[in-house]
Amino acid sequence: MSLKFVSFYGVVVLLTSLFFQFVPLPKMLSWQEMLLSKLLNQAPVLLCLGYLWVQRNRIKEANIFYLLTAFLLLNVFSEVYYYFVNEDYLLMINICHNSLIYLILAMLFKKQSPQVRGQILNPKNISYAVLAGLFFIVGFSFSLLKVYQKHYAPNKLFFFVLLIAMVMTTTTVCVSFFVDKPFSRNWYKLVVGTIAMAVLDVYLYLSLFVFDAYSNLIYTIGKLIFSIGILLIVERTMRKCLNKAPLIVLYKKVSDIG
C-alpha cells in the first residue's frame, strides 16, 4: 500500500471516530441519518475493498485474494442483516456472524503459512501463541461464566454459540503467530491486527454480559483500534496475493510474409 492511501485511510478513520464521538443515540436518528452512520462505520472496510478492486489485475494468489475479499465483505454484511433479523435473535446472529469472520480469517492465515512446518514452528513462536491464547481465555472466561449463570438453563444454545465464538477468536489469534517465518520482516503486522480485532470482542462481551452496560467506546476508541487492525491484516496479506506491478499483456500483430 502506498503512503498516500494509508494517510487517507487514517484521515477517514479519525473523522468517522469523531463523528461517533458526538452522534446522538440510535433511537434519536432518522432512517437517513442511521444509514449514513452505518456507511461511515464501515468506511475503512469499504476503502480496503475499493483498494482490492483497483488492484484486481495484480492477483498472484487467487485463493488468498478471494478469502481476503470475503473477510472484508463479511465485516460490511454486519450492517445489512440488522434490518431483516428479528431483534430477539439479533445478538445470537451477530455472534455467529463474528465466528464466521474469524473462521474466514483463520483460513486466510492457513493459506499464507509456509508449507514446511520447520519454518514456522519454533519455541519462540509457540510460546508467544500460548501466552496470547491464555490472555484471551482469561479475558473471555468472565463473560462465559456470567452467560452460564444467567442463560445456560433457559437457553443452552446461546451458551454454546458464545463458547464456539470465543474458541474461534482465540484460535485465530494463536494461528496468526504461525503465518510468517520467524524473524521475517513485518511478521508482527498480522499478529497485531488480529489481536486488535479480538481485544474489541473481549471488551464487547464484558460490557454486555459482565457489566451490563452499553459499550459506548466501541464506535470511538474501539473503532480506531479495529480499523488499525483491519489495515494491518489487509496490508500484510496483499503483499502475498498481489504481484509487485500490474500484469500487462502485449499483443503484437504478425503480418504474413510472402
UniProtKB/TrEMBL annotation:
Task: Reply yes or no: does the keyword Metal-binding apply.
Answer: no
Name the UniProt key words of this record, in alphabetical order.
Membrane, Transmembrane, Transmembrane helix
Please give the coiled-coil regions recorded for this protein.
none
Q: Where would you find the membrane-spanning parts of this chain?
A: 5-23, 35-53, 65-84, 90-108, 128-145, 157-178, 190-211, 217-234
Q: What is this protein called in UniProt?
A: Uncharacterized protein
Protein species of origin: Emticicia agri
